[in-house]
Amino acid sequence: MVILFAHIIRLSLVLQLSSISAHKNFSQPDFVGIGSLSFLCLIDMKKSHVVVSLLLVLLFHEGEVSAVRTQDGSEAWGYVQVRPKAHMFWWYYRSPNRIEDPQKPWPIILWLQGGPGASGVGIGNFQEVGPLDEFLKPRNSTWLQKADLLFVDHPVGTGYSFVEDTTLFVKTDVEAATDGTTLLIEVFNKNETLQKSPLYIVAESYGGKFAVTLALSALNAIQAGKLKLNLGGVALGDSWISPEDFTSSWGPLLKDVSRLDNNGLQKSDSLALQIKQQIAAGKMSEATDTWSALEGLISHYSNNVDFYNFLLDSDEDPLSLTAASVELKQEISLKRYSRYLQTLRSTPGGEADLDKLMNGPIKKKLKIIPQNLTWGEQSNQVFAALQGDFMSPRISEVDELLAKGVNVSIYNGQLDLICATKGTNAWVEKLKWDGITNFLNTDRTPLYCGGEKSTKGFTKSYRNLHFYWILKAGHFVPAEQPCVALSMIGNITQSPVASSKQIAGGCAFGREMGLRIT
Ligand SMILES: *[C@@H]1O[C@H](CO)[C@@H](O)[C@H](O)[C@H]1NC(C)=O
Ligand SMILES: *[C@@H]1O[C@H](CO)[C@@H](O)[C@H](O)[C@H]1NC(C)=O
Ligand SMILES: *[C@@H]1O[C@H](CO)[C@@H](O)[C@H](O)[C@H]1NC(C)=O
Ligand SMILES: *[C@@H]1O[C@H](CO)[C@@H](O)[C@H](O)[C@H]1NC(C)=O
Ligand SMILES: *[C@@H]1O[C@H](CO)[C@@H](O)[C@H](O)[C@H]1NC(C)=O
Ligand SMILES: *[C@@H]1O[C@H](CO)[C@@H](O)[C@H](O)[C@H]1NC(C)=O
């Protein structure tokens, strides 16, 4: 295995992107974000005399730029060739709140998006938890307040990650975990500061299956002395850990909330049973097809319920769902995924378009994305390659992590359908971990946020298993309930930034972020 960073020649300060002055005005936005920052923080901006670091440090490997770091170290990104001709893209943000205190280690969050094939660098970063939203305005609820953030387009073929040969897409979660571990070795082994930080693998949706396999693979590499990293824990947000339990939950849940009648329930239960039998027989690819058919059937009988929030309608035409081929149905359900997040955008000021952003200003900023690569929110090729592993459960991997003493946190949005809380409760009850009975018998604590009186959720913990029930959120918890999600992630990562400090975010924090992105 080639350790890329070992061969890096640091050509310092080769790229001057703008004239530098200790009293520079924010008048010439060479980079993304500045215009929007002045929108929010105009008065502060004019007053401040800011040292702007517009320099990038390019890190070379074998004549090609493999990584870039901003001169102040607040951001870095790069490609790791995880296998010959398979390139994985990562983007790291250092928190402006980071402290170096051995008593209170500063956490790093590795965000794993779902799909499989959905881009964490795009969706998780700009639509959910990163420092800027897709209008490039500061996100006051960014998780960067509590931890450093590492976004990865995982597995290869997703977002800015790419393969030079289509046979190189991963076919299993375990293959993805091997690539992910190679990436962690490249990013962490050369930086002692990062090694001292506990890494929390935080996942959404299909990312949960990746997260538990990656955590186990990383622990093996750590034990073998190949990876220098301190694993803090795993957090599974609305995660597809047990496909059988989710597909079985859909019918009964929708019937109870009036979205299906008995007729629809019987038909969906019959497909759910078929899925269960296919999984038991190891017919995983067939189970994926049945999953797709079940989504179509439920869309039809529910008059198009939104799989990411069962109180809403999806804006798809139900007829096209039932008529289309299996492949098309999959594409439709994937498209639905991205549209749902778009509907959450509340910022006025016109249409934001993640495709345009990622293929325009962001690609320009990053410098190292191949010219002919087009960023896509969801790679159907990545999804298709994983068709044979999409429906396999990862409950035993959760058990293994629990038995090893790793902190496992689960959080679920109340209104999610695709990874419904009903299904999550069902697979949690199947855990063989010796603390499960006590966990199930433990009472919950209500959660509040932002000085509001209404209940935002519930939590409970027993030993190293933690569960957060988040009310009034669907599949995308951080985007739908940002206040309680931020408090939660601070607690999960044991962030030195106290729970109450989040309120101090807002404009001042946004300004700091703006400096960071230049
Ligand atoms: C900043 O801009 C203002 C108004 O445009 C100008 O008067 C001032 O000289 C500028 N300052 C610097 C340091 O360029
Ligand atoms: C290591 O990580 C720290 C924390 O983000 C950063 O400040 C520093 O620049 C990094 N060092 C190198 C050599 O990349
Ligand atoms: C992009 O260009 C490289 C050579 O510069 C080539 O190897 C690769 O196949 C191209 N990729 C696409 C998607 O066209
Ligand atoms: C797990 O989290 C708890 C706090 O919730 C902490 O006290 C404990 O040290 C953590 N354990 C590990 C192994 O990180
Ligand atoms: C986080 O921890 C603080 C302090 O224990 C508590 O007040 C708050 O409710 C917790 N928030 C969440 C979402 O767990
Ligand atoms: C963050 O922004 C939202 C809307 O943009 C606002 O409702 C909320 O109060 C803000 N929170 C903080 C902590 O500033």
Automatic annotation (TrEMBL):
Tagged with keyword Hydrolase: yes
SUPFAM superfamilies the UniProt entry points to: alpha/beta-Hydrolases
Catalytic EC class: hydrolase
Signal sequence bounds: 1-22
Claim: Protease is one of the keywords in the record: yes
UniProt entry keywords in alphabetical sequence: Carboxypeptidase, Glycoprotein, Hydrolase, Protease, Secreted, Signal
GO BP of this protein: proteolysis
E.C. designation(s): 3.4.16.-
GO molecular function, one term: serine-type carboxypeptidase activity
Compartments, record wording: Secreted
InterPro entries: AB_hydrolase_fold, Peptidase_S10, Ser_caboxypep_ser_AS
UniProt main location, coarse: secreted
Family, similarity comment: Belongs to the peptidase S10 family.
Protein name: Carboxypeptidase
Organism: Coffea arabica
Organism lineage string: Eukaryota, Viridiplantae, Streptophyta, Embryophyta, Tracheophyta
This protein's encoding gene: LOC113727129
